[in-house]
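Risk mitigation, structural track. In case the binding assays with cytidine-5'-triphosphate fail to produce interpretable data, a predicted complex structure has been prepared as a fallback.
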Amino acid sequence: MTVSLGGLRIVVSAGPTFEDIDPVRFIGNRSSGKMGFAIAAAAARRGADVLLVAGPVALPTPGGVQRVDVRSAAQMREAVLAALPADVYIGAAAVADFTPRFPATHKLKKSAGGDAMLLDLVRTPDILAQVATQARRPRLVVGFAAETQDLARSARGKLHDKRVDMIVANQVGVAGSGFEADDNALTVFDADGSHALGAGPKTQLAERLLDLVHARLQRAGAAPAPNPTIPGPTQA
Ligand code: CTP
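Fallback model:
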C-alpha cells in the first residue's frame, strides 16, 4: 500500500547548479536531476504539496508539482529559503561547492592570460546546512551524499556536520548508477544507523525513500494517518 503524504508541504531541490565564469562559460557537474524529479513526482502522487527547486536540467515538470527554475547555488539558496516553511526538505541537488569570485561580464580572451589560467573561486553557501539550522527548520531535513569512496564515513560525517535527519548516500562514478543514469543504489543514514534502499530505477527508490520519510514523520507525530478515516488522537 502506498502511504499518503496528503497535508504535507515538501520542498525538493534537484539537478546541478551552474556557476558562471563569463557569459559563455560556467562550472557545472554531471547531475541530471532525475533522482530529485522522481522524488518530487512520487511525493505529489501521494498527495503532498510539492515545490521543486530545479537547477539547469532538461526534464519535464512532474504532474501536480510546482517548479522554480534556478541556475546558480546562490539562486537555489534564495529559492529554497523562500519556499519555507515546509514540513520536509529533501536536498537532492548537486550544488556547486565553489563559484567564481568575480564572474567576468565579457568573454575572457585566451590571449590575455598566456599559457595558463587560474580561476579565483569562493565557497558557495551550504543550503542544506542553512535549512537545517534556521528558525523555520522543517520537521525533517534530508540530504544526499554523492561519494566515490568512503561512502559510509562521509555520509555519517555529513549527517552530523549539517545537522540533518537523514543522509541518502549514493556511490557515484560507477557505470549504470548515480549521476546521469536512470538507476541508482541508495543507503540512508540516520540516527538509528543505516538502511539499504537497494538498487533499481530512481522512480522506485524515490518511493522507498518516501516510505522512510513517512515512517520517520509518523514516529515524530507529524505524518498524516495512513488511513484518513480513522480519527487521530485529539489535540490537547
Ligand atoms: N549541499 C547544499 N549546498 C551546498 C553543497 C551541498 O545544500 N553548497 C547539499 C546537497 O544538496 C546534498 C548535500 O549537501 O544534499 C551533500 O552534497 P555533497 O556534494 O555530497 O557534499 P558536500 O557537502 O558538497 O561535500 P563534499 O563535496 O566535500 O563531499
